[in-house]
Design goal:
10 helices; four-stranded antiparallel β-sheet; Flavocytochrome C3, Chain A, domain 1; binds flavin-adenine dinucleotide; alpha+beta
Length: about 290
């Protein structure tokens, strides 16, 4: 961004609906969609399958739908994944079972407390289908790139595929480009610097930024929440010492996402504006 590469679609963020919610565990481990696919259901504090209120597909509705339903249930008292009826859970999901046991939860016996967690960025540095960005000499591959293949809402497991496919394409295109026009000198521009130790002093600021983004630029946004986030991010930027460049970079990214979310006045995929409901909800309201 600072050197002039174009970013695109950075307002589209995907939340995983079922991260294990335990105090002090950050990042929260995920309980894969496959467990819901195998029959686990989501229950609220009354033991009701609340996802059916949001979508007839229930637990298997798209990630953004289930994530919003889980967030609402969590805010109203809690959301739990009930995998007790899944047959052969321990043999079908040995990694998840071991992770849960490490946290003192037995999925064959216990309800599993869950909440949504930020999972994937659909947008990023705009590239063509061979990894070229809009800045000559800069290439991007992987989650940092916005190739367009994920649209507004990535399908599960497609990012590893994207990494494989586009790394291969970019590697070939880069080799071709270098054969045709070898660079005169190596690039020297840098947006970072040596670690000054200043970032270690800014944990409170980063925590405030995380809370601010979760509350105002998370699963649901509105003009008011986004304006508030922009103002607060400015304040946090002013209170961050210049040598804390990692924290400054994170604040820049948070600000760009917030601004992009404010400029997109519609709901689409991973970007839900409460003040611009999706067309399907508007039709229902008529
Ligand atoms: C919990 C979890 C589960 C997931 N499960 C799946 C899944 O099942 N299927 C799927 O398709 N996707 C999944 N994803 C998404 C997928 O893992 C990521 O999109 C993918 O790993 C991105 O790969 P990447 O190489 O682009 O970036 P990364 O894997 O983030 O790699 C970037 C690397 O760059 C390094 N780096 C950063 N800054 C610097 C620097 N300044 N100098 C040098 N190195 C630096 C980092 O340390 C890191 O090693 C999951 C994501 C999460 C968080």
């Amino acid at each position: 961004h600072r050197i002039g590469a174009k970013l695109r679609d950075i307002e589209f963020l995907q939340f995983h609906p079922t991260a294990l919610k335990l105090p002090g565990i950050n990042p929260a481990p995920l309980i894969s969609e496959a467990v819901r696919g195998a029959g686990a259901v989501l229950l609220d504090k009354e033991g009701r399958r609340f996802t059916l209120d949001a979508d007839p597909r229930g637990e298997l509705a798209p990630r953004d739908v289930v994530a919003r339903a889980v967030a609402a249930a969590d805010a109203a008292g809690g959301a739990w994944l009930d995998a007790r009826a899944v047959e052969d859970l321990a043999t079908r999901f040995p990694g998840i079972t071991a992770m849960l046991l490490r946290h003192g939860l037995d999925p064959a016996r216990d309800l599993l407390p869950v909440a949504p967690a930020l999972h994937y960025a659909m947008g990023g540095i705009q590239t063509d289908l061979e990894g070229r960005t809009t800045k000559s000499g800069l290439w991007a591959v992987g989650e940092v790139a916005r190739t367009g293949v994920h649209g507004a809402n990535r399908l599960a497991s497609n990012s590893l595929l994207e990494g494989l496919v586009f790394a291969d394409r970019a590697g070939r295109a880069l080799a071709e480009t270098l054969r045709a026009t070898p660079p005169a000198t190596a690039a020297t521009e840098s947006v970072g610097g040596r670690d000054s130790g200043a970032d270690a002093e800014c944990e409170t600021i980063r925590q405030e930024m995380r809370n601010l983004m979760t509350a105002n630029v998370g699963l649901q946004r509105s003009e008011a929440s986004l304006l508030l986030a922009e103002r607060e991010l400015d304040r946090l930027t002013r209170s961050t010492p210049a040598p804390a460049w990692r924290t400054h970079n994170q604040l820049v990214v948070a600000g760009l996402i917030t601004n992009a979310a404010r400029r997109r006045r519609e709901s689409r995929g991973g970007h839900r504006r409460t003040d611009y409901p999706p067309a399907s909800l508007k039709r229902e309201a008529v």
